[in-house]
Specification:
Blueprint (H helix, E strand, L loop, with lengths): L29 H8 L11 E10 L2 E10 L13 E7 L5 H15 L4 H14 L8 E7 L3 E6 L2 E6 L2 H12 L6 H7 L9
Antiparallel strand pairs: 1-2, 2-3, 3-4, 4-5, 5-6
Length: 196
């Protein structure tokens, strides 16, 4: 399997994959909170396989390599209806602030997000996204209808449990109206990457 022991497993509680309910309004702390944030109800990423890959360039400068993983082939028209993981391997240094700003700019181009919601999303991304250097990997795991989970160099760094945000964020790459149509096609396995 492509996702081996270096990729954190997603825990499942209970026979039906639904997390245990905690009574009395108790707050989860410590490692239980971490498990919850990692998406206990999410499909196990160990089953994911590489679907497509490509490279983003800006005026000829390589920004990052992107790879899309999924358990089932993502048809273009249903790409945002199934779980998947998108991994970016950066070729240049960027601050976490710059990554959050660029992400929000792209989201605004694709959605009618309100100013208040955009501000909230920006604050959440800014808290989670780290600064990156060449060779660093930032991976997002999409849990449709629930959340987006983020990993930095294979370490879990946070989740945003907002279905609307999760769809809007991954639309940056997979929405038909993306500003990166060639990269979208490569990620969905529809055209070969031009880069070695």
């Amino acid at each position: 399997m492509l996702f081996n022991s270096r990729w954190p497993r997603i825990a499942r509680f209970g026979g039906n994959g639904v997390p245990f309910r905690f009574h009395g309004g108790a707050r989860l702390t410590g490692w239980l909170a971490v498990l919850c944030l990692q998406g206990v109800a999410m499909a196990n990423t160990d089953t994911f396989q590489l679907q497509g890959e490509g490279t983003l360039r800006w005026f000829g400068l390589k920004i990052y390599d992107a790879r899309l993983f999924s358990s089932d082939h993502l048809a273009p028209e249903r790409a945002l209806q199934q779980p998947f993981a998108l991994e970016l391997t950066y070729a240049r240094d960027f601050s976490g602030l710059k990554i959050a700003e660029t992400s929000l700019d792209e989201i605004r181009k694709l959605t009618g997000v309100s100013a208040d919601r955009a501000e909230q999303w920006f604050a959440q991304m800014q808290r989670i996204f780290p600064s990156v250097k060449s060779g660093d990997r930032l991976r997002g795991v999409y849990e449709p209808g629930r959340a987006a989970h983020f990993y930095f160099n294979n370490q879990f760094i946070g989740s945003i449990p907002d279905a609307e945000f999760a769809r809007a964020f991954f639309s940056i790459w997979l929405d038909p109206r993306t500003t990166k149509p060639d990269l979208r096609s490569q990620l969905l396995g529809r055209t070969p990457s031009r880069d070695p």
